[in-house]
Amino acid sequence: MSLHPQLHAITERIVRRSAASRAAYLAGIDAALRDGPFRSRLSCGNLAHGFAACGGTDKGRLRGGVTPNLGIITSYNDMLSAHQPFETYPEQIREIAREWGATAQVAGGVPAMCDGVTQGRGGMELSLFSRDVIAQSTAIGLSHDMFDAAIYLGVCDKIVPGLLIGALAFGHLPSVFVPAGPMTPGIPNKQKAEVRERYAAGEATREELLEAEAASYHGAGTCTFYGTANSNQVLLEAMGVQLPGASFVNPEQTLRGALTREATVRALEMTALGDDYRPIGRIIDERAIINAIVALMATGGSTNHTIHWIAVARAAGIVVTWDDMDQLSQLIPLLTRVYPNGEADVNRFAAAGGPAFVFGELIRAGLMHGDIVTVARGGMADYAREPRLQDGQVVWVDGIIRSADEDVARGVDNPFESQGGLRLLRGNLGRSLIKLSAVKPQYRSIEAPAVVVDAPQVLNKLHAAGLLPQDFVAVVRYQGPRANGMPELHSLAPLLGLLQNQGRRVALVTDGRLSGASGKIPAAIHMTPEAARGGPLGKLREGDIIRLDGEAGTLEVLVDEAEWAARTHAPNTAPAANDLGRNLFAVNRLVVGPADQGAISISCGPAAADGSAWDYDAEYELGHDAAAADAPHEAKDA
C-alpha cells in the first residue's frame, strides 16, 4: 500500500526542517567508526582494565579483539515490579553470547524511579529530570569504548526515553531494547478507579483502598494499564529497535526468555564485524520517529511522550514539534481502547491482536512507514507478525487481520474515533495538550470559572472545606519544568473524577504533567510558556472564566484585552518542598527547556562545528505553527 499523501507531506516537512542537524548527527556517527572492534584502539593498559575481572574464556576473546562484545545497560532494581525481572538477564545474555563465540559485559546501570510510588510526593520533582540523568548514565557506561553493540534493559516511564537518548549519543553502535513484560491481570482497572473515587469521597477506608491497589499491582512485571511504560514498548516496536511482539509477553512465560535469547543473537549479528551492520543512529530516522508518533496516536498512548519523543528525536538530529503531533493525531484513527481509554488492560489488548494487529492495519492503510530498517531481519513487515515458540526457537507468524475483541482493538475501516488521542490547544493562555481519547465527547468542552492554586494539595483542601464551585476549571500553576521539575499531578484524578461523576462540570489546566494514565476529565496539560517563565497562567485570577474546547483545539480566558494586558504575574505561593535530593537538581531547573521542546536539561543531539550543542532554535523557530514556520524552508528549497 502506498503511503498516505498527508503522511508523506508531514514526513517530508520534518526531513527538510531537520536536514542540517540530521546531517551533522550522521557525520558524527561516521566519524566514530573505525576498522575492527573499538576496543582494538585501546592501549594495553586500557584493555587490561576492561577485561581484568572476566573469566578465562571471555578474557581470551576480549584480548584477541576479533569477536563481538556486547555492552549491557540495565535499569534493574528489585523494588520496582517492572524492573525486578532484569536481575537474571545479564547472566542469560552472557551465556548466549558465549555460545555464539562472543562476550557480553554489564557496561553500567541506570536509575529507575517509579512515578506510581512518588505520586503526590516530593520525589516526583525529580522524575522528569531522571530521564536526562539516565541518558548521561548510559553514556558513562558506554564511554569505555569496549563494545561492538549494546543491549538495553528498561521498561518504564523516563527509563526508556533516557536510554534512547543515551543510545543515540552512541549511534554508531547497533542496539536492541529488551523488555521484561507486563504482570498478569489483577482486579479490573475500572474497579480500582471506583475504589479510589470512593476513598476521595470519604466512602472507603484506607484498608479498602490499599487492598484494591495491592490486588491491581500484585507481582513482577509492568503495571497492566496503558500508561507511559507500556506506551514505551509499543513505540519501541514502531521504531524497529525492539523485537516484534516482545512488548506484552509476561515475565514468567517461556517465550519471554526465548525472546531475550533472540534479541542477544540479533545484537551479535548486527555488529560491524559481520555483514548485517545496523547502527541505531541510522535505524532511528525521521520515518521511525513518525512511526512512533503514529503508534502513539492510534493506540491512545501516554501524554508524556509528547515531551519525551521530541527529546528522543533531537538526540538523533531530528526536529519534531507539537504541531506535527497534532496534525498526525488528526490523520490517524484511534484503533484501541485500553485503560485509561477503555476498560481492558494490556494483556487483553495483546490477546485482541496487540501491536501486530494495529501495525498491520496502519501499514496496509498507508498510515505508517513500512519500509524502514529495523532490528528484525525482515524489516517493518515483521512487526505485523507475532512471535511463537517452535521446538524451543522463536518463529514469527502472520498476525491476525481481524480483531479478536472489537471492544479493545479495531481496524482502520471501523475505528473507535476517526482521529487519534491527542489535540494541541491554542489560545491566549499559551499552548497545551489534551488527551481526548480518554474523555467522553460530552465532557470535551467547558466554560466555567477558574479555581487558581499553586499546589495540587490546596485543591483537595478546598474540596474538604466545601469551597469549590459547582462547576469550575482547576488551574494548577507553577508546576512546569523550571518551577519544580514538572511533576505528574495524577493524585488529583480521583477528586476531579468523583466531582464529574456527581454531575458537575470540571476540568484541569496546568503547566505540569498529569500522567501516562491521563483519565476521564478534560485536562489541558504541559502548558507553555509555563508560569515560572512568565507564562499567561501567572496572570489568571480566581473566578476568571475559562473556555476549553478540545474538539476545536482552543483554550482561552475570557477577560477584557486591556485588563489582561495590564495584569501583573502573581507570585508562586506554593510551600517550599522538602529537599529529598531536590537541591541536587537546581541546575537542571535553571537550564531546562520548555515542554514543547522536550523539557531537556542536557545537551541533546549533534554538536555544532565548534563543539558546542546544536542550536535548534537558530535552525528552526520552535513554538509556532509547523506549516507557517516551515514556509521559508520550502521557499529556499524551491
TrEMBL record:
Residues 408-599 form the Dihydroxy-acid/6-phosphogluconate dehydratase C-terminal domain. Its cofactor is [4Fe-4S] cluster. Binds 1 [4Fe-4S] cluster. Pfam families: ILV_EDD_C, ILVD_EDD_N. Its EC number is 4.2.1.12. It comes from the Bacteria. SUPFAM superfamilies: IlvD/EDD N-terminal domain-like (SSF143975), LeuD/IlvD-like (SSF52016). Residues 68-381 form the Dihydroxy-acid/6-phosphogluconate dehydratase N-terminal domain. GO terms for biological process: D-gluconate metabolic process; Entner-Doudoroff pathway through 6-phosphogluconate. Catalyzes the dehydration of 6-phospho-D-gluconate to 2-dehydro-3-deoxy-6-phospho-D-gluconate. Belongs to the IlvD/Edd family. This is Phosphogluconate dehydratase.
